[in-house]
Design a protein that fits this description.
The complex is a heterodimer of chains A (about 140) and B (about 80). By secondary structure, chain A is an alpha+beta fold. In chain A, about 30% of the residues lie in helices and about 40% in strands. In chain A, the strands form 2 sheets. In chain A, strands 3, 4, 6, 8 and 9 form a 5-stranded antiparallel β-sheet that branches. A 4-stranded mixed β-sheet of chain A has the order 1-5-7-2. In chain A, strand 3 and strand 4 form a beta hairpin. The model of chain A has no long low-confidence stretch (mean pLDDT about 95). Classes of the chains: A alpha+beta (about 140), B alpha+beta (about 80). Chains A and B meet through strand 4, helix 2, helix 3 and strand 8 of A and helix 1, strand 4 and strand 5 of B.
Chain lengths: ~140, ~80
């Protein structure tokens, strides 16, 4: 049974609940990334972040990511949920859960998924820090 | 023909709007359409941009059709 999912929401994310949704009987491991708002980036103190997305395209890109991950790694199910809107320090902005029969593929694919999400899914964050605000630009420009 | 142009994040802030409509001649490529928008909003040239046609990343040589959706934005930063 396919338990993949990809979603955008402005509601707070429940990491444990999201992780449980990907579990099939054939799996022995789930790796879950809980990405949350960091307070300190070197000397700079973040106050909060605001995320926005090009929603229909973001969902399409998330769907593509899951498809690509499943072609490359021995994994069963993938769930990705990204939150949008304002988030305070410590609040979860993104959850990626991967269920696989064995843990190695789950770790590797979860890392690959977050790296690609940051490169290709059209979501942007604006950082409000002590002394200013700035739209963050990702490092990667090229879409392969 | 007419297409809509969408902006997000920093590009929306620069343009001051999230969506505009532009008129184009037939047989225009996506790169030419983007160049036209940059002429209208030269401040956009100060940042590196990506763009998409109908919700797919575009390179510049895609032919634009009436009613297409062009989106212009900076490097994505989700996560």
């Amino acid at each position: 049974m396919n338990k993949d999912f990809y979603e955008l929401t402005t509601e707070p994310l429940n990491v444990g609940e999201i992780a449980r949704r990907v579990v099939p009987a054939s799996c022995g491991a789930i790796v879950t990334l809980d990405g949350f708002v960091r307070q300190w980036t070197r000397e700079k103190e973040t106050l909060y972040l605001e995320y926005e997305a090009y929603q229909p395209m973001a969902l399409k890109e998330m769907e593509k990511l899951i498809k690509n991950a499943k072609e490359q790694f021995e994994i069963e199910n993938v769930g990705i949920v990204h939150r949008l809107g304002r988030m305070e320090i410590g609040e979860t902005s993104v959850v990626i859960s991967v269920a696989s029969p064995h843990r190695r593929a789950a770790f590797e694919s979860c890392e690959w998924l977050i790296k690609e999400l940051k490169r290709t899914v059209p979501i942007w964050k604006k950082e409000f820090y002590v002394g200013g605000e700035v739209w963050i630009q990702g490092d990667s420009q090229e879409k392969s | 023909m007419k297409i809509s142009v969408l902006f997000f994040g920093q590009t929306a802030e620069i343009v001051g709007r999230r969506e505009i409509e532009i008129s184009l001649d037939n047989s225009v490529k996506s790169g030419e359409a983007v160049a036209g928008v940059l002429e209208k909003y030269p401040k956009l040239k100060e940042t590196k941009l990506l763009f998409a046609v109908n919700q797919n990343y575009a390179k510049g040589d895609e032919l634009i059709n009436d009613g297409d959706e062009l989106a212009i934005f900076t490097a994505v930063s989700g996560g």
